Amino acid sequence: MSKKASNAGNQQGTPRVSPNLINHKWGTFRDYTPDTIEFSDDMATLIALLYTDGGISRHHLASWRIFFANSSYEAIELFRQCLVKIFRIPPERVRVSVVLKKYYFAVLTSKVIGNFLVKYFGNFRTLKFRNGTFPIASIPIQKIIKSDKIRVFLRTVFSMDGGVKFYSVRDKTSIRKRRWLERNISLACHHPTLRKQYLRLLRSLGIKAINIESDKVVKIRGRENLEKFANEVGFLKGIKTTSHSKFWAGIEKNKVMKFMINSYKNPAKYISLLSF
Question: Shortest CA distance to 253 belongs to which of 153, 154, 160?
Fold first, then answer.
């Protein structure tokens, strides 16, 4: 067979493989780049999940483990769906297990996907090293702002590492034992750079917050700011407060936030609630 005939046969019987596709045992994978992967709602959500309760670590010499741990199965499923939609992989590639009968642990092992995430967003490590220094970490803040994903990103971050602080306080030192309502939305974050970046994103939406270094939190207080947060950001649907919450364990964060906002209309009603 001539070379020309051979080429003709290949053109008719064997489809050409695009240079941005890679063969893999699980199927055909794309060569992920910013040109093939857009900074979508799913990507903003995935980045937020990895910066809060997730991360990326080495797997053997050349591969990566992209992981996420949470007590909420809804959060675990969200992590899985983001990976599936963004990178077009089979759902079963994201393995889920239960740790200590308290937490779900989801993990994807992938050289190609790990390389993409680490190259364009870093390794997502935020905890201190043994010597007390923090790793270099930075939210892709310009991408988030430029692609108008601030609300999506913050909603996910606050749903994972944030919560509503809404309870009555009694002044035990005074004779009258005056009571009032404590109202705030807090985000726990140990990394100082990330806290500053969260503040910047919140302020871009007109929401004033403070960085409390001693407590390692970003805190939103005041009726106007809390109402703006509720209207502009809020929490992910179905995400509930954990068992660590003294008054609201197991209740959806959005519902607790609604109670808190409504309490400005009738504070006495909420102060007198038996749950307090």
Answer: 160
